[in-house]
């Protein structure tokens, strides 16, 4: 595909960059977050980020029927990240694979510090993340949407966890890698934070970065988180505020 | 403190300090700062020095005193009827964990009750009010109000649901058996 860069797009850039979609190195892709989109779930959210489309449904806290998973002093937080078979160009085999299982686990770990699980002994909070369309960075998109869905479900939290990745593509440290950038990318650093305190709840690093580049990527990702955090709050205010 | 009653807040938003106020419903004490746990509006009780949040979202179904619950009678002993609680009326969400409730004979009706089996039978569907929370999954219940009690009675003989014939009695349309109940004013059938 040929992308024509217009002056308008180029002028928008705060830092010169050679990114294929004309973004500045510290630009996020266009995004949109909505809260409370599903009637049947206790809480839900929908998020678009670039070509990603993610739907999250939350059920609970509710009765946990599997006794061996039951915790006497708190709820368990179960996340299931799933990519729809039609979410990628090559039809994906349905059901959990190793990658989905890993992402489900890290999503749960990223969100858990914000949730008051101790208020619901022996119960479960189930978070279903469905990636409808994937275009790079779905694990972070899932975390960001899941927090909104949890708030929509009235689950007590100290903050809304938000996630964003930065990385290195074409020799440059950039924010929010698209699928194309990620494919040829040299590194990817997904970060989740509790924005009020700045506490990091997820930090992964895939690929090769100098310590200087890593620090730059981390700071960039945190800035990206702060922008998405604003959109998370606006989504809830739009749904429930006056 | 700048927080006002009616202000819309999000999880983590600062509401006040514990030196001035008690953190009440849907708030938490964050090292002396009171913050909201949910998306909702602030309720400031200056007289009692309490800050609470009225959630704008639906809320997890946790039982508390005064909640009216519905459920099914699972056992009737001498002094106590046991009930499996299905949920809270006015809250569509499923309970956060399974609860069972006990209705003591003294709490079954307003007046004196001689025999608990004249009030409840296994299988009856009952509306009751929570009077006490015991541990994680047990509550005490009362049905000593007009709109509380049996809303559907199950025949002990043939398990059919019964018709109300007067204030205290139900009749089985299938086998003709007559039984006593603590009947709710909201009896169905
Ligand atoms: Zn009968």
Total number of helical segments of chain A? 5
Helix percentage of chain B: under 10%
Radius of gyration of chain B: 21 Å
Uncertain segments of chain A are 1-13
Strand content of chain B: 35-45%
**Whole-number average pLDDT of chain A?**
92
Number of strands of chain A: 10
Query: N- to C-terminal separation of chain A?
Result: 45 Å
Rounded to an integer, what's the Rg of chain A over CA atoms? Answer: 18 Å
Please write the CATH class name of the largest domain in chain B: Mainly Beta
Helix content of chain A: 25-40%
Describe it.
The complex is a heterodimer of chains A (242) and B (189). Chain A has 242 residues and is α+β, with helices and mostly antiparallel strands. Chain A contains five helices and ten strands, in the order H-E-E-E-E-H-E-H-E-E-H-E-E-E-H. Chain A has a five-stranded mixed sheet with strand order 1-2-3-5-4. In chain A, strand 1 and strand 2 form a beta hairpin. Chain B is mainly beta. Chain B has two domains: 8-55, Beta Barrel (OB fold (Dihydrolipoamide Acetyltransferase, E2P)), CATH 2.40.50; 68-152, Beta Barrel (OB fold (Dihydrolipoamide Acetyltransferase, E2P)), CATH 2.40.50. Chain B is 0% helix and 41% strand. Chain B has a five-stranded mixed β-barrel. Chain B has a four-stranded mixed sheet with strand order 1-6-7-3, with no helix packed on it. Classes of the chains: A alpha+beta (242), B mainly beta (189).
